[in-house]
Amino acid sequence: MISIEDAISAVKNNTSPLFEKTTKVVEKANGYILSEDVLSPINMPPFRQSAMDGYALYLHDDLAYNLIDEVKAGDEHQPVLQLGEAVRIFTGAAVPNTANAVMMQEKVKVNGSYIEIEHQLNLEHNIRPLGEQVKAGAIALKKGTKLTPAGIGYLTSLGITEVSVFRKPNIAIVTTGNELIEPGQPLTHGKIYESNSKMLQSVLYSLKYYDVSLHKVEDDYSKTIDLLKSVVSKNDLVLITGGISVGDYDYVGKALIEIEVEQVFYKVKQKPGKPLFFGKKGNTSIFALPGNPAAALSCFYAYVYIALQKMMNREPLELQRVQALSTSKFIKRGDRPQFLKAIFNNGKVELLEGQNSSMLQTFALSNALVFVPAEVSEVRLGDELETILLPV
């Protein structure tokens, strides 16, 4: 059995970035990391653009101008202004080449075909210059940038339809156990509805990992070997829930040995999630998580999240940790460090009831995990607690 700190280090040291490139259409590239610099094919804006609704002017020494035309956003025509002339213009519209300033409409008096501005303007006032945001041929986004909705919008505004990104991992989730049945089936005596696969799939989806396959195997040694051999050969990451303890029908550990998975560690001094396995075969990472749902999810946040970050070459590797003041009391039993489900809000943290590793109801309300070290046996009101913020 190893410590939490050693387990975290082992995951970091035994997981490698994928660094394989693939091409994605821009609208489906959210959450991916750019594998190459993206160069802008155009100037943005692609023309001199009005920053507001108002009047485009060909400046002269007087405050009065002759109003000759109108330019709306999207208009292609280019009125030609003479000295002392103006055109009505709207936000985002192309400023005529002969105009050299824009006055906002609130500072203009209109009298038929004449206008009067409140004061003189500097050249190019309220005009967004050609290529102000990015120039054609310049780097729009650098290699290594994580694409966000704003990034998707930005690249789309440049007319870019595809980008080169680092491939995300293929992930298999394997659930084991004769007692598990699918929701929608009659719940007969001795059976429970299987929830771990949907729970893990959901957290992966929330982190924008969508290449996820679900598999189920009975408590049968040969079937467990066959399935694990298949998913390990086809995926970058395999998550197994259940069957990793030492019961008579826990076959996962034996099957992993049979298919020659290298054990990095097995069992971590922690609660929940003591029977946690992490191993490697080739470039595939394998986590055998506890079967109890809350324990499985706690281990995901503490260890699997790190492996995913490392595969995508992202920083930071671990979830954010902050110090928060406890609004609850808690007595810790035993000598193992513990992850407690909690609600963090504005520098304070509430420890929730129902910390049993089989209970998800409390986890469903949580937005944080509190880490209680081995040497701490009691949490008191006002204690400063190390709090792990869960992704939303």
UniProtKB/TrEMBL annotation:
Keywords: Magnesium, Metal-binding, Molybdenum, Molybdenum cofactor biosynthesis, Transferase. Pathway: Cofactor biosynthesis; molybdopterin biosynthesis. SUPFAM superfamilies: MoeA C-terminal domain-like, MoeA N-terminal region -like, Molybdenum cofactor biosynthesis proteins. GO terms for molecular function: metal ion binding; molybdopterin molybdotransferase activity. One of its GO terms (biological process) is Mo-molybdopterin cofactor biosynthetic process. It is an enzyme of class 2 (transferase). GO terms for cellular component: cytosol. PANTHER family: GEPHYRIN (PTHR10192:SF5), MOLYBDOPTERIN BIOSYNTHESIS PROTEIN (PTHR10192). This is Molybdopterin molybdenumtransferase. The lineage of its organism: Bacteria, Pseudomonadati, Bacteroidota, Flavobacteriia, Flavobacteriales.
